[in-house]
Amino acid sequence: MDSSAPSSSATRLPARGLLARLGRLARHRWADARLGAALPPDLLERLGARVAASERRHGGQVRICIEGGLPLSYIWRAAIVRERAIAQFGKLRVWDTEHNNGVLVYLLLAERAIEIVADRALARAVPPETWATLAGHMAEAFRAGRFEDGLTQALSEVSALLVAHFPLEGDAVGQPNELPDAPVLGRGWGLR
User: Fold this and answer.
1) What is the pLDDT of residue 161?
2) Does 176 reside within a domain?
3) Distance between CA 162 and CA 126 in Å, rounded?
4) What is the CATH number of the domain that holds 147?
5) What predicted TM-score, i.e. pTM, was given to this entire model?
6) Distance, CA of 54 to CA of 162 (rounded, Å)
7) Which residues are CB-contacts of 113 (< 8 A; sequence separation ≥ 6)?
8) What rounded mean pLDDT belongs to the chain?
9) Do the bridges between strand 184-187 and strand 190-191 make them parallel or antiparallel, or are there none, so unpaired?
10) What is the C-alpha radius of gyration for the chain, rounded to an integer number of angstroms?
11) Rounded to an integer, what distance in angstroms lies between the CA atom of residue 128 and that of residue 126?
């Protein structure tokens, strides 16, 4: 039997799998609808200003991407959140910085998931446990209802790592801003 050909059981979802996926879909669409209420414009503005201030201290680039829910294709195939974060890392061109030292802080509200994706140069310098600890600090703040504090603390910790491993060369005025500073909001049907 050719293992690359789908079997008939692979094309049909078991009843429990179908219900789980429909439940996940409903949760994600509900989170999409509440995204604007969870992240008011003034909060997004403050976060963008903090990213800009952070980038004046080091040679790296930071992006924040917050999505309410996943697109239908991710939900239907039961994709993990890390897969989406890596896809957004590419789509937002965080990987395309001159020194390969971009960082994406990714939040998925529907699953209360936090992912931090670091580009090659920074990933070689910082062990995965450090990123996990940073995500844990964010999760603690979020559980306590301190959403802005959690993101601000994460940004400070990411900045400290970038300062340590990629100190600013010359002055901040000559440092190009390779990526937009404003946080990116996304709903399951696309980014805005």
Assistant:
1) 97
2) yes
3) 10
4) 3.10.310.50
5) 0.85
6) 9
7) 81, 107
8) 86
9) antiparallel
10) 18
11) 7
Residue 49: CB partners within 8 Å, gap ≥ 6? 181
Residue 4 maps to a domain: no
Question: Could you tell me the two tokens for 125?
Answer: 């310098």
Q: Report the C-alpha gap between 117 and 121 in whole angstroms.
A: 12
Widest pairwise Cα distance in the chain: 63
pLDDT tens-digit profile of 90-137? 999 999 999 999 999 999 999 989 999 999 999 999 999 999 999 999
In degrees rounded to 5, what are phi and psi of residue 61? -130, 140
Q: Are 58 and 99 in contact (CB under 8 A)?
A: no
Runs of H (alpha helix) within 15-146 = 15-38, 41-55, 72-76, 81-91, 120-125, 128-143
Mean pLDDT of 43-60: 94
pLDDT tens, position by position, 134-164? 999 999 998 888 889 999 999 999 999 999 9
Rounded to whole angstroms, the Cα distance separating 186 from 39 reads 11
Give tens-digit pLDDT for 114-127.
Answer: 999 999 999 999 99
Residues in the chain: 192
Give the domain extent around 64. 14-191
Q: Are 66 and 115 in contact (CB under 8 A)?
A: no
Rounded to 10 degrees, the C-alpha dihedral 178/180/181/185 comes to -140
